[in-house]
Amino acid sequence: MAAASRSGPPAGEVEAVAAAWMLEFACCCLCRRFGDGCAAEFQRWSDVAHALINGLSKIPTHQKKAVYLCQLLIRIAKGKKLECHFENDKRISPLESALSFWTLLEREEVELEKLHKDIHQLIQIQIVAVYMENGYFKEASEVLERLFTDSESDKPLRMKLATVIKSKDPYVPLLQSFSYNVLISKIKSYIELFMKENETNFLLQAATKQVESQGLGATALQSTTVNADENDKENLEAKQRPRSGGKLRGRTVLQSLNSLQNMEKHGNALASIRKRQRWTYKEDLKLKSGVKEFGVGNWAKILVYGDFNNRTSVMLKDRWRTLCKIQQG
């Protein structure tokens, strides 16, 4: 028994290797979900990656890139949500936190200098833009001081952003040209390069071989068997169900009436909420942006574009009329 226990490697080393495989696999899955825009799956893999990273006593050199990338993507995904905090300092927004991890990633590789610089500047610009979109112009000025050093290379962008903040207009050409969507697109380009480098991940390869060995035929046969069993079960339940047609119809009518009453109550409540709900500064900005994008009168398109909360196209039209009157004085 003693000889058998000595023959295997230490359990700690085995666990460390397995954890490394799992972290690399989680990072690949996180990248893929970020790329395809599946929010629910991205959140699921964010939780997995976060748990694995927290389990590390120290970050092995060969895993630094994967850890930094996971942390970056998790923060970029929450970039527009200023209420989310990843740092003890509550002044630090998700994008400002993301910038620190992007800086660490830049140090890990030197061959992507142009892409690195583009993404770095996009994050800096969007940190300011998100504050401005929410009407936090004081915070936008403060973050500008934290973002830029006194180096000459940073001076042109810093001066441009300072001018933008003074204008208090989050829809100036600079912020539109270097938008959040452009940032996401650049991050996706970086992810594609990362995924090509990590095609040899052990768990991915093992899972691929397993799926290929099972073949499509086995999966199709299993699916057919399950569907047949479910159909048989439904038919059996239908035969065993008592035939009380009159009572059943009466019960169905009552249920329908109750359902209609509930819908009516819900509709009235929703209408009441809509009437009471004040327009926020952020909603006004979304409305102005939508009018710029689609033109006056296309309220249905603007409603979808702006993702307004409990608003209707008629309410958008009325609010636009009010804004125009305010502007005319």
TrEMBL record:
What's in the keyword line of the UniProt record? Acetylation, ADP-ribosylation, Cell cycle, Cell division, Chromosome, Cytoplasm, Cytoskeleton, DNA-binding, Isopeptide bond, Mitosis, Nucleus, Phosphoprotein, Telomere, Ubl conjugation
Q: Quote the subcellular location field of this record.
A: Chromosome, Telomere; Cytoplasm, Cytoskeleton, Spindle
Signal peptide boundaries = none
The record's GO molecular-function terms, alphabetically, read: ankyrin repeat binding; DNA binding, bending; double-stranded telomeric DNA binding; G-rich strand telomeric DNA binding; microtubule binding; protein homodimerization activity; telomerase activity
Q: Which residues form the HTH myb-type domain?
A: 271-328
Its main subcellular localisation, reduced to a broad class, is: nucleus
GO CC list = nuclear telomere cap complex; nucleoplasm; spindle
**UniProt-listed PROSITE patterns:** HTH_MYB, MYB_LIKE
A family per Pfam: TRF
Instruction: From the UniProt entry, list the residue stretches annotated as the region Disordered.
Output: 222-247
Q: Which residue ranges does the record assign to the Myb-like domain?
A: 271-324
List GO BP terms, alphabetically.
cell division; negative regulation of DNA replication; negative regulation of telomeric D-loop disassembly; telomere maintenance via telomerase
The source's domain of life comes to: Eukaryota
Q: What does this protein do?
A: Binds the telomeric double-stranded 5'-TTAGGG-3' repeat and negatively regulates telomere length. Involved in the regulation of the mitotic spindle. Component of the shelterin complex (telosome) that is involved in the regulation of telomere length and protection. Shelterin associates with arrays of double-stranded 5'-TTAGGG-3' repeats added by telomerase and protects chromosome ends; without its protective activity, telomeres are no longer hidden from the DNA damage surveillance and chromosome ends are inappropriately processed by DNA repair pathways.
Give the protein name, as stated in the record: Telomeric repeat-binding factor 1
What organism is the protein native to? Strigops habroptila
